[in-house]
Write a structure and sequence with these properties.
By secondary structure, this protein is an alpha/beta fold. It contains 17 helices and 5 strands. Helices cover 56% and strands 9% of the residues.
């Protein structure tokens, strides 16, 4: 993996599993729609299907599913857009997806397939379903008729009670949705982590690892929580984060050599940040190690790949220290 998993990449990976995707569509589409679909022919469309504009902006996944009565010549094209925070301009984004998909179908000389947008939301803020006219407060019907009003499926996982999420027989889907809902709640995850991981069938260990790594990348747990993970998932999580930690140390080492830092920094980097700090204190090299610590944090910030919380977790420094370095960098610009 080149970078820590984002909310979007987690959703994409989970929905790329055909069983989870089918279960998700059956669960959240209106019954009058899902009842007409032939899910045995459900397929995920490759990026080459999309227009260039759509490929650049689409956050999640596109799926195609024909109806049971092929004579209708109707196929439903599902655009599953994911949001982890409230964004009132998402309506404009979804509208662009719809017409971009139709333009691509027309360009390919295909029979037009109905596009059904689905917005999957799991953020902390309250977000109510609205149509495009909500962006034009006070508009009357004389003007509203010129707006391209469209409907979409709004799935706010955060508002769903756990007992509702647990209803489907598809346990991997349940694990996926519960993980999304509670990703902000470290206390709930600590108490339910082992059960949540084991909820996904054992023959889907790849998905178990995806869930575990996503959870540990967004939260900080004590060692007991990590030890509750089943093997080999526990080892995989530990090894993966070791890789990210070592990458951060390596970048700090390279920059430290380039700038000719003194012996205290070199020792701290070569032996790992934690051991290096202890060594520096014992040898009276605290000043040099403090510079080395700041150097590593600065390098991770400049990479623009990690959040303040992730940098704090990797390096073992307080978030306040990371924010201080971040503020210093901004002033220099």
């Amino acid at each position: 993996m080149d970078q820590l998993p984002t909310h979007d990449s987690f959703v994409r990976r989970m929905l790329s599993d055909r069983k989870i995707c089918e279960g998700y569509l059956r669960r959240f589409l209106p019954q009058e729609i899902s009842g007409q679909l032939d899910f045995s022919k459900l397929e995920q469309l490759p990026d080459t299907y999309l227009s260039d504009d759509l490929k650049k902006s689409l956050a999640d996944s596109v799926f195609l599913c024909p109806t049971k009565k092929g004579s209708l010549s109707i196929k439903a094209c599902f655009l599953i857009e994911h949001k982890s925070h409230k964004d009132n301009h998402t309506l404009l984004q979804i509208g662009s997806y719809i017409f971009s998909a139709y333009r691509k179908q027309f360009k390919n000389k295909e029979p037009l397939s109905i596009v059904i947008p689905i917005l999957l939301y799991h953020g902390k803020e309250r977000w109510e379903y609205q149509t495009l006219d909500s962006l034009f407060p006070g508009i009357d019907n004389n003007w509203k008729r010129f707006l391209p009003i469209f409907e979409f499926i709004f799935n706010d996982v955060g508002k769903m009670p756990d007992h509702e999420i647990k209803k489907p027989d598809n346990k991997a889907l349940v694990a996926f949705l519960l993980t999304l809902k509670h990703i902000w709640d470290a206390e709930w995850l600590s108490a339910n982590l082992s059960w949540l991981i084991n909820l996904t069938p054992r023959d889907q260990t790849g998905l178990q690892k995806v869930i575990a790594f996503y959870i540990f990348s967004r939260n900080k747990f004590d060692e007991n929580v990590l030890n509750s993970l089943p093997e080999p998932i526990k080892t995989d999580v530990m090894n993966t984060f070791d890789v990210y930690y070592e990458k951060g140390i390596e970048k700090g080492r390279e920059e430290g050599r380039e700038e000719g830092r003194e012996e205290g920094i070199e020792k701290g980097i070569e032996k790992g940040l934690e051991k290096g700090l202890q060594k520096g204190k014992e040898a009276g090299l605290q000043e040099g190690l403090e510079k080395g610590k700041e150097l590593i944090v600065r390098n991770l910030i400049n990479s623009k790949k990690f959040t303040v919380s992730e940098i704090s977790n990797f390096t073992g420094v307080p978030e306040s220290f990371v924010k201080k370095v971040q503020s210093s960098l901004r002033k220099k610009k």
